[in-house]
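ok posting inputs for the magnesium ion job
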Amino acid sequence: MKTALAILRKDLLLELRTLETLPAMALFSITTFVIFHFGLNRPTVEGQTAAGVLTVTLLFAGILGVNRLFVAEREQGGFDAFLLAPVDRSAMLLAKATALFLFLAVLEVIAVPAFGLLLLGPSLGPPLPSLIAVLALADLGIAVIGTLVSALAVQTRARDVIGPVIGLPLLIPALIATARAIGPLLGSGGPAPLPGKWLLILALYDVVFALVAYAVFDFLLED
Amino acid sequence: MKTALAILRKDLLLELRTLETLPAMALFSITTFVIFHFGLNRPTVEGQTAAGVLTVTLLFAGILGVNRLFVAEREQGGFDAFLLAPVDRSAMLLAKATALFLFLAVLEVIAVPAFGLLLLGPSLGPPLPSLIAVLALADLGIAVIGTLVSALAVQTRARDVIGPVIGLPLLIPALIATARAIGPLLGSGGPAPLPGKWLLILALYDVVFALVAYAVFDFLLED
Amino acid sequence: MVDTPAIELRGVARFFGERIALRNISVIVPAGATLAVLGRNGAGKSTLLRVLATLLRQHAGEVSLLGEPLPQRAFAVRGRLGLLAHEPLLYRDLSGRENLRYHARLHGVSAERVEDLLREVGMERRGDEPVRLLSRGMVQRVAVCRAVLHDPEILLLDEARANLDPGASELVEPLLGRASGRTRVITSHDPQAALAEADFALGLRDGRPTFSLPADQVTPEHVRELYA
Amino acid sequence: MVDTPAIELRGVARFFGERIALRNISVIVPAGATLAVLGRNGAGKSTLLRVLATLLRQHAGEVSLLGEPLPQRAFAVRGRLGLLAHEPLLYRDLSGRENLRYHARLHGVSAERVEDLLREVGMERRGDEPVRLLSRGMVQRVAVCRAVLHDPEILLLDEARANLDPGASELVEPLLGRASGRTRVITSHDPQAALAEADFALGLRDGRPTFSLPADQVTPEHVRELYA
Amino acid sequence: MPTYGKGLRGLSILTLTTIVVALTLVFFWVPQDASQGFIQKIFYIHVPLAIVSLCGFVFGGILAVMHLRTGDRRYDMRSYVAIHMSLIFGVGGLITGSIWAKASWGHWWVWNEPTLVSFLIVLLMYATYTPFRFSIEDPERQGRYASVFAIVAGAFVPLNFLAVRLAQQYVHPRVLTLTGGNLPGPMRLTFTVSLIGVALLFVTLWKYEMAAKNARIQMRTLRRRLLGDDDLRPPQRSAAPTL
Ligand code: HEM
Ligand SMILES: Nc1ncnc2c1ncn2[C@@H]1O[C@H](COP(=O)(O)OP(=O)(O)OP(=O)(O)O)[C@@H](O)[C@H]1O
Ligand SMILES: Nc1ncnc2c1ncn2[C@@H]1O[C@H](COP(=O)(O)OP(=O)(O)OP(=O)(O)O)[C@@H](O)[C@H]1O
Ligand SMILES: [Mg+2]
Ligand SMILES: [Mg+2]
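and the output
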């Protein structure tokens, strides 16, 4: 736990040392929505389309975040240094997944209001609590899978393909569930109740992969 | 010219060895289509919406490629080695833009059929030639801007964020033109003729920024 | 009880695919002694050090460090050994101080120790600059701090003094040198210097041992043969 | 016509922000001679070499290489100089051979030259492995090939023999050594060895010259002062 | 070294007068717009702000070209200050525009006004300028890269307007058009005076900031001369050029 905190702290330091990331992400999300506006050529979106837009934005940010999180470890020997320390391997999983989760969460804190302001037809207020729940679950999934897969990619050294090729397909179920769960919330007639089925699937997905990640992570880091 | 070829060759070889960029780009776009396929309540899209989804997806995938364009040069001293050679600096621009263009082209060879299969309502066959023309022009724009932005971002500390943040707004005009040019091609009633206006704007965009890039690129490599 | 040796290797082998990086290595280093590993480029020196550092597993044979067999009880010896490899293992975008603080937290070492060490290697005034902006020798100084931060019992030094100026070499002597009292495994491409500070010597050639002797029994003939 | 010196610096300065990395450096190296640059970690040796390599511009003073003023005519001397810096400047995911072929293309050198060089440093059989999998010394050998690939008139060597085993040191002698007939600027943390193979010596301290003399006039006193 | 303080006082007075005159005209003289009422008066602040800010960006780009051509770092400083000022003016334009939109259309944001959308994109672009500078340590490289940025962004501005304007199939019916001849006389006069006032304000602020920056640099040079070079400080990071 303390180890995970140390790693997390180091990552956040690396990432945020000048707080230039946050404004950058704010700009980035606004730009993204401007792009969707022009791309879809609609002044507003709602329902499933809105859900799709949000999910894809999330996915894109996730990939960027994953790249960023593990590059320093790989290029600068951070993994070796970590492996030399007398600490629990899973701390790395915990720390990296948390960092990724935070990255996504911060992005959403900025991007979702921007989305509401710029692109979303229906008001953002009513569906917000449910939306937060869904997004949190989705972030968790992306964070766990992203960490697992990048660790795999870093450690195999011959890091060919592995990262995205395994990671993205693995994420598809979670992403579909996310889009489906969000869709009804953003309907033009006001939010429908949260679709429990999709939420459940998402939660199940998170739990399963968190357990799997925890179980296999140690082996990934050895050798 | 020969220099550019040498660099290009090296870049392609590196990509072939590490497969870091293309799989991520391709899988990202396919994942996006899958999300929209299962996420939208419509099984298919057409017209402007189809054009928007396709363009935005390709643009994002392109940004993923942009981010990695100069990473190897920076981390492994490739810039220095290149600067030591008695060759024209612009060769780097030419080579990197070509590499990016090729990546995008390969990406499209995979992503466009996937799009036709997963998402597009109307048949992909009839509009294909016009589509290829538009995409080629769009790729050119992304390649030039992407190279420029990537060269700008790679020497900064927040490189992974700064690249997309500068690149996306810069690409908006190209994106608008592309989406608008593609829209009529994918109409449900069969392809309309290519909208010349947008093609022209796209071409103008490409030419202007190619010239600007050529003019300023040297300054990015010195020192 | 008989003193357990600090390091004991018996018939150790390690492959990379088909390539033999280490083969049939047996050596014993008593606590506090220094082993010099010599050999040509690619002989397997760094690989051996990485095996000892628990970063690589052996494919055959037995390794035990401080009485604990590897790799089974690797977790028990981590934190009791320090590695200074070819790469400094520092984050280039963090400052030396931040890097060391991070490692201090990982190893449960106090922040004062970081300051002490930085002072000892003469980097206290440059400690707040990103490692990327430091000169190569300064980076190496910080890397030395990293390796000895947790006061390890075993030190694995892979050409540790490369890039250090003569003054810095002296500064790090109490940390890395024989006087530190640690059990050490060192590699160097200066066989004379290495043998002078070693108690035992292991000669490697294409991953196989050519000699494994007390340092004072290594003859110039041995050395010549090793590099021939 | 009087022979133009291969390297001529007059009052050269270079800053990094407020920091003075070089100040008031003046030195002349005739063609074919060797200049040893000595100094502590952070003295500015690598910075000087990077200025000479046209990778950094001086902020004050004049630099001329082979009679061409820098940075104005940098393009005219690139391709006539070779740099071996702290970093090998090789792509880690490409093989040694691929790396060298790439540089050969950039420099307009034939592919045979690559093979010859690889053979000369004893890497012809390991030339097809990604650099990332090579041992540190093997990487350095490939880096040596890279630096002399285009048969440069001026060689800038930043601790060029670090990580090379004694045998490899001999192998690269005809390429990097005095016998190569090139004008050389070398740095080293072994002042004795460096002075022995140099004609001129420049001592740097915090970026400022402490001495600039023919190598045989450098006394142990000078050296002591430099590192004190 | 040029002294940017010269003539600054006269310029300040002129600017102040023009702005006071403009405000007087806006609030006490020009007739209220028939359909939009009092809120329409924000037009006289909003549009000049936006126009001046755009011109400032282009100005910054031109200065950046000069920087790269001459290698004189002072041009970088000028370009930096120009873009910085333009950003402030641009945000002002965006906010006043937002207020206007809220008052007249009931939304803070509308997509069907091409100037507005394209200006948003331009602002998004330039908003990265300062963080971008800040993330480059080497002052010289910082200047060079920032200039490249400024040039590329400068070229981007017109292209962006073209594309965005064409993309709008339906343009909101307009009460006022700058180019069209249907701006009534008093309105045109008021608008022109406002525009001149804001432009003068821009120039004045630009000069003030240049003068301040200049003074600081001269201070440092002096201090270095007095204390000698041995004042070895680590390179301090700043988005602003340090020369
Ligand atoms: C949030 C930002 C903005 C909003 C909400 C906004 C809103 C408006 C509104 C409501 C009008 C009046 C249109 C009419 O009554 O016909 C207007 C006009 C105008 N705006 Fe903005 N604006 C914004 C930003 C900008 C920017 C950044 C520019 C800079 C180029 C700009 C330039 C203009 C011009 C030139 C006009 C007069 C156009 C005409 O009547 O032809 N606006 N704006
Ligand atoms: N990860 C790896 N994959 C494949 N081969 C490897 C790997 N690491 C090392 N090798 C090979 O193992 C052999 C031994 O390498 P090692 O780094 O141990 O040599 P070394 O004795 O340290 O040499 P040097 O003096 O050059 O540092 C070399 O042939 C090297 O190419
Ligand atoms: N890019 C940079 N930015 C800021 N400072 C730098 C940069 N590069 C070098 N320096 C500083 O310049 C000084 C000289 O560095 P240089 O690398 O030339 O030293 P050196 O003599 O080669 O030392 P070493 O023996 O350790 O290799 C050092 O204080 C270093 O921190
Ligand atoms: Mg080694
Ligand atoms: Mg150096």
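notes: The helical segments of chain D are 45-52, 74-77, 96-107, 111-120, 136-148, 166-176, 191-196, 220-227. Chain D is about 30% helix and 30% strand.
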